[in-house]
Design a protein that fits this description.
Biased composition (Basic and acidic residues): 183-200, 527-547
Largest sheet: 5 strands, antiparallel
Region (Disordered): 176-200, 521-547
Helix content: 40-55%
Shape: elongated
Radius of gyration: 28 Å
Domain MobA/VirD2-like nuclease: 43-133
Strand content: 5-15%
Number of strands: 10
Strand order of the largest sheet: 1-3-5-4-2
Protein name: Relaxase/mobilization nuclease domain-containing protein
Number of helices: 19
CATH architecture of the domain at 2-155: 2-Layer Sandwich
Pfam families: Relaxase
């Protein structure tokens, strides 16, 4: 997945020129902070290469043992699209070498996407001399830039894009050999045969056998988690892996990483969940909805067992942004349990406007279209999408998320996009529902969310509460506030399908009445409320005494 090319550093401009010729003679894409950003660019011209070589080598002094540059290779599975591999590598490289997130410096780098083999791969060349603090870039086991950490971040970033990489070493996968050398690969290609690995011997073989035992123990723990999630295919594959490792056999690659240790299990689980969500998203609507409910029911239990109460809470919560809480399926716009039928022309306008807005902010139009097909199932899935948007946007803006000022700029731009998307959705849906009805329903749903999150609801002013109460009565009749406060929720069934959400809204109305006279039920309503909603109105206090 990530390999530091042995003897890949360059000692002078001439060697760097030779390396650049190889990288960009057959590249199908490029990126890096040392090149002009061009999403359609395939390679660098001879003049562009010469300019980079001159800029870099001009500041080189001495003869470092491993050269003035570092050459890295990122390989992806054959089923990953080249443009997806490039995007993942670009976000990863920005975090590693430009954002300052791992070390307080930045390094110039160029990268080339190659597709001349069945699996897409990206070559990166980094100038080892830091741009800001003159720090020397190097990789070592105990250094901030170590192969394990760099792999883990690549796996996490790929998971956010729906791609699942195996971050384990060859020993952890049960391979008692080294990968074939570059020379062996080229020789095998000329001879028309498969490259042969080099067998491990002596101490290297002993270490590999120890790794087999450790990884087999880890696999047993992961198999238990897999079984609990109901993902039979993954469970069976992990169980197969455990058996093969115990015998010291050769393993088949499986989806999901095998991070050793309990501490990393939560991270593994998060990436695993993202994979399950991606597969479920590709199913037909009826099967997809059923599978989602089953998956998240299991996932909540697993998160709690891992001690991750925050994730468990997010798995239960609905999406918090209008954009990712919305799905456009056929001629319907679905926001939570609210379904609005749109005319085909209105649906197309809304989708096109959202895609255009995403593109104008530098986000992937294709990814937005894909997400709009289903919407986020909950705040957990929404969080992963927001993280992905932040990383993409920071890369496009060349801003570091670790720097508070730069992170604030990125977050501000992204919030502008979400606000604009919310406005577009509101405008489209309100045109179909009618302005007043939509305003009332939106406020009721917001009150329900506030009740779920905070356990209390209040408007900014009594006047605002009075206007809402008037609109609510105009839409549903003069007795609606008393009906809702008493738990009579059928009046909302046409616009809010979920009985649970309607009941939550009824509780929100009752809670709002504690703060606003206009939403306060009658004494008779309060008595009925105790029976229907199952808790004391006003926390057991008399309403009149709180006036």
């Amino acid at each position: 997945m990530i390999k530091k090319i042995r003897n890949g550093g360059t000692a002078n401009g001439r060697e760097l020129a030779t390396q650049m010729d190889y990288l960009f003679s057959k590249s199908d894409g490029l990126f890096g902070n040392a090149v002009v950003l061009d999403a359609e660019g395939k390679g660098l011209s001879k003049e562009e290469r010469a300019e980079i070589i001159g800029d870099w080598s001009e500041a080189w002094r001495g003869s470092p043992k491993n050269g003035h540059t570092t050459h890295l290779l990122l390989s992806f599975p054959a089923d990953v699209r080249p443009d997806k591999a490039k995007l993942i590598a670009e976000v990863w490289a920005f975090e590693m070498f430009q954002s300052g997130e791992h070390q307080d410096d930045a390094w110039a780098y160029v990268a080339a996407l190659h597709t001349d083999r069945p699996h897409p791969h990206v070559h990166m060349v980094i100038n080892n001399r830091g741009l800001m603090r003159d720090s020397w870039f190097y990789m070592a086991r105990d250094h901030v830039f170590n192969l394990d950490t760099m792999k883990e971040r690549l796996v996490a970033i790929a998971a956010e894009e729906g791609v699942f990489l195996d971050a384990t070493s060859r020993a952890e996968r049960g391979l008692m050999s080294y990968g074939p050398s570059r020379g062996e690969v080229e020789t095998a290609r000329r001879e028309g045969r498969a490259p042969e690995p080099r067998a491990k011997e002596g101490r290297a073989l002993d270490a590999a056998l120890v790794t087999f035992a450790q990884t087999a123990e880890t696999m047993r723990g992961l198999a238990q988690v897999a079984a609990l999630t109901g993902l039979t295919e993954v469970h069976d594959r992990i169980a197969e892996t455990e058996q093969a490792l115990a015998k010291g056999g050769i393993l088949h690659r499986f989806q999901g990483s095998a991070d050793a240790g309990r501490a990393n299990l939560a991270r593994h689980f998060e990436g695993w969940m993202a994979g399950a969500e991606d597969r479920i998203r590709k199913l037909g609507a009826p099967e997809r909805n059923a599978m989602r409910k089953e998956l998240y029911a299991h996932a909540t239990e697993i998160a709690l067992r891992l001690g991750d109460t925050r994730s468990a809470e997010l798995l239960r919560m609905p999406p918090q942004t209008a954009l990712y809480g919305t799905a456009i399926a056929g001629d319907r716009v679905m926001a939570g349990d609210t379904v609005t039928d749109l005319r085909p022309s209105a649906r197309d306008v809304l989708r096109n406007d959202l895609v255009a807005a995403a593109a104008s902010f530098g986000l992937s139009s294709d990814r937005i279209v894909e997400r709009l097909e289903t919407g986020a199932a909950n705040a957990w899935e929404e969080r992963a999408w927001v993280r992905s948007d932040l990383l993409v946007l920071s890369g496009r803006r060349r801003l570091g998320l670790r720097d508070p000022a730069q992170a604030k700029l990125v977050a501000g731009d992204l919030q502008q996009f979400y606000d604009k998307a919310g406005t577009l959705i509101d405008r489209s849906v309100s045109a179909e529902l009618g302005a007043q009805t939509y305003r009332v329903v939106s406020t009721l749903r917001s009150m329900g969310r506030m009740m779920q999150l905070d356990g209390k609801v209040a408007f900014r002013s009594d006047r605002q509460a009075e206007r809402f109460a008037d609109d609510l009565r105009d839409r549903y009749g003069p007795t609606i506030i008393g009906d809702l406060a008493a738990g009579k929720i059928d009046a909302l069934a046409q616009v809010i399908e979920s009985p649970q959400e309607r009941l939550l809204i009824a509780k929100a109305i009752l809670a709002a009445g504690k703060a606003h006279q206009a939403l306060r039920p009658t004494l008779q309503d309060q008595t009925e409320t105790k029976q229907h909603l199952g808790f004391e109105a006003g926390g057991g206090k008399d309403w009149d005494r709180e006036r």
